Amino acid sequence: MSEGKHAEDLEDLFEHAPCGYLSMRPDGRIAKVNTTLCDWLGKSPEAIVGKRLRDLLNVAGSIFYETHFAPMLRMQGFFQEVALDMVRADGGLVPVLANAAERRDGSGDLLFTRLTVFKATERRQYERDLVEARAAEREARRQLEDIVSSLQAGMAEQVAIVMEEKRNSELKEQFVAVLGHDLRNPLAAIDAGASKMLRDQAWTDSTPVILRLMKNSVSRMSALIDNVLDLARSRLGGGIVLNLVDRPLQPTLELVIAEIQTAHPSRVISTRFEIARPVRLDHDRIAQLLSNLLGNAVTHGAQDKEIRVECTVDSAGNLALSVANAGDPIPQEMIPLLFQPFHRGQVRSNAYGLGLGLYIASEIAHAHGGRIDVESEQSETRFIFHLPAQ
Amino acid sequence: MPITHRNNVTVNGLGGTAMMFAHGFGCDRNMWRFIEPHFRNDFRTVLFDHVGAGMSDLKAYDTEKYSSLDGYAADIVEIGQELGIEKAVFVGHSVSAMIGALASIRAPGMFNKLVMIGPSPRYIDDGEYSGGFSAAQIEELLTSLDDNHMGWSAAMAPAIMGNPDRPELGEELTNSFCRTDPEIAKQFARVTFMSDNRADLSKVEAQTLILQCSNDIIAAEHVGEYVHNAIPGSQIRHLQASGHCPNLSAPEEVILAMRDFV
């Protein structure tokens, strides 16, 4: 040592290096530890030599060391940059980063495992902050995604509601216009008939014809008003109120058919009744239901083909009342819309009203606990009112 | 997806009887590299990675399924069925000792013999029972898993995934050995250290050998004795090897003890 104390003293380097040194024997017991590490831990070398590394770690760190870093060390001969918490004499923790390497002899037998530790309080805190920031960011992102998707869903819903409202209000305006128009036509007919009779000043050959036309116009206006009132009733709550009675059904049905026949003398309406027992019904409403279905058949069915009305009530009391007409089938996609008052794309004026007939008929069916089915094929279109035995 | 791909299964050996090796928490099937080759002459050896570990298919990781050890036991039974394993030997390290016990109960006849290395049916103290850890210590462990997160997230995946034929100790595995997705590792840690399989031990019908290390902080000697007393007809062998991984630190001793048993 000619250079005296100016030369680097290896012993001093080991003891006072700016990092902690620790060597373990093959059985895992600590053989040597430097002063730096002893100082950091506030322990004497005697308190450390002979212990195991895990005795210097907190419990979590020792589990982690045993399950991860000990195997890694054995498998690859070293590990690097492992985060550990060492426990000081006073119980406080020293956060460190550790590197380790095995030292083996020529035949591959383990001599020592050497560990260097670097105090890393600030760095470890920073890394923990980073991890927490990342977790917070992930959580924030998740929340943001939730918000965005619920906003999107909410907006889509709002747009749908607004569109629906807009469409409904347009349809309602159309509806009012059509209602006014439809009431004006029969009113004009009555007015014309009355004027003609006033001019004639007497009963002439044409008088019965004029009166029948006027009466038809009144019936038509009356049916329109009934349907509008029913629409209002079923929409404004309460639904349709029934007045149920036990009375033979056939006369009620025949009366409706006669009325329609009178209004449309050129149409052939055939009937078949097989009514095994009385059914408890609101007859006025059933008359209205049949009238609406028949009106529909008269309007939309082929003019030169017969309309068939059938009513059967079996011995158990199951009722089926059907109206069938020939003509173009109803497109399949239209069928679910048939019974909706404002969802037919547009309100159409036709000879028999406002397109409310089927809606009212189905409301009447529901009020009774039944339903109306539609079968529409090339040969015929059939509306069937089913009412199961009560 | 084939189960063998999902669990990175490899079959070796010349024997008729199968011997399946299951790694524990914190590592992968490489754990057995000093043990498994010694049994190839007499057994058909089966190595695999639990889903979420090693070279298993991470896409198959299902948080729900693997929220208890049963999910892992179900995988073992599936592997056994796939390979037509019967009357075999199951060698489970650490938490896989319990997973093997569950699998043997699920599929009677699949495993006749269980070798449990460092088993613990419950890590957290519970009244009279001493598992070795307080609930607070385990909670601290689960929290501290994040401390080695920084290295884990960046380095791990490309090195392992990019090389399906990884050489056993290749340069590219440096410091990434036994690493996996940190989120999965956290959940596996939770499932492992929160598990309680004490009630299952009495249902084990397979012949069982417990290999108990000295100075194992994770599965202390009295825990090994508890398992020994709870499994009917089991044997316990105390190893000189210290620590939790005798299959790495003292493979000769483990091989000797296993040979005597099988």
From TrEMBL, chain B:
It holds the Pfam family Abhydrolase_6. Belongs to the AB hydrolase superfamily. SUPFAM superfamilies: alpha/beta-Hydrolases. InterPro entries: AB_hydrolase_1 (IPR000073), AB_hydrolase_fold (IPR029058). Transmembrane segments: none annotated. The keyword Protein biosynthesis does not apply. Residues 21-255 form the AB hydrolase-1 domain. It comes from Devosia marina. This is Alpha/beta fold hydrolase. Keywords: Hydrolase. One of its GO terms (molecular function) is hydrolase activity. It comes from the Bacteria.
